[in-house]
Amino acid sequence: MFSTVEIPVSSGPGGCQSKRWIGRRIGSWGMRYLFRYTSERAMNNPIGATIGTSIGTTLSKIHMNQQLSVLGVEHTALEFVMPKRACDCHTHVFGPHDEFALSKSRKYTPPEALLSDLVTLHDALGIERVVIVHPSPYGSDNSCTLRSLQALKGRGRGVVVIDKTVSKAELKRMHDLGVRGVRINLQTEGIHDLSLAQAQIDWTAKMIQDLGWHIQLFTQVDVIARLEGVFNQHDTEFVIDHFGLVNPELGLDQADLKVLFKMIQNGKVWMKLSAPHRISKTPDSDAVTQLARAFIDCNPQRMVWGSDWPHPGGHLSGPRNIEQSEPFNAIDDGLALSRLNRWAQTPEMLHRILVTNPTLLYNF
Fold first, then answer.
1. Fewest CB atoms within 10 Å of the CB: 177, 233, 306, 355?
2. Where are the chain's structural domains?
3. Which of 238, 103, 118, 137 is nearest to 181 (CA)?
């Protein structure tokens, strides 16, 4: 299989371009991945580049003892055949840092994780579609995410972060590039005040009401439960990140979790079965499996999956220091997908989570 992603890059002095944005060489995995780049100078794209990822076959068809290394993390082969048009509904792109400046008010400083790295991983796993979620270290400057969507063309969709400086014209341009939602990140910002959360939701819902977008919310289940009335005041749908940060060890009889189940059953809320390492140190445990299957059984039509690649948040204990680059979590995404397959239990359910539901939610 040979896949190509066109990635426009900025021109430096004398027309020099950033090779870091264009691609990396990624080790070996029973075969060699080689990125190549070429310049394009055309009337409608005066400066551009092409990433070519030469891949002999998809990961699902490769022997089980072979692995792919991306950003120093080994990804094991799948235990199932990936369905066509599968979508990873939660990823981030970071960098290059000399082209896309991080926010001065960021909570952490990530290493670079380029679009080329993400494409390499997805091509190997057989994932054909992707949702790029704008990460918090960029604040409300969506330039990196939008550039990635432009390069991915129809293969990608986006979820952005906006503030009160954004115009309706800018939102329309984002829509044309593939944006389908706005993320409100209460968790990273440490916001647990209901009035502050409601103010953000009310303003965002008003701004996107003509676009048909959803609101993606990253916060804890107790906050989500208290926002039920706010959700019901708006026509927009809501997507919850990372299992709603539910503690699986507390079982299924949690009061706040029951409220979340009800909102999912009613179709108002979607759940991302993503990043189980954020809710448990043992994501393969019976408790996590029970929680995942409870969400699926609650309303299979409102479940999607995301890898959370490149898995930010790998800092050790203690306060974060933005003067230091914070490592990513070393998560095996091949293993994560095989875990999802076990949660889904049937090929039909897996297809719904990876293909049917993302196609509807993100308007592929």
1. 233
2. 84-361
3. 238
> Is the model's pLDDT at 273 over the cut of 60?
yes
Instruction: Write down the pTM of the prediction.
Output: 0.83
CATH code given to domain 84-361: 3.20.20.140
Using an 8 Å Cβ cutoff, are 137 and 108 in contact?
yes
Within 8 A by CB and 6+ apart from 183, the residues are 133, 134, 159, 160, 161, 215, 216, 217, 218
How far is the C-alpha of 168 from the C-alpha of 186, rounded, in Å? 24
- For residue 218, count other CB atoms closer than 10 A to its CB: 21
Cβ atoms of residues 286 and 293 within 8 Å? no
pLDDT band of residue 319 (cuts 50, 70, 90) is confident
3-state secondary structure of 313: coil
Q: Where are the beta strands (DSSP E) in 269-360?
A: 269-272, 303-304
Q: Which helix (H) or strand (E) is 214 found in, with range?
A: strand 214-218
Neighbours of 245 (CB within 10 A): 18
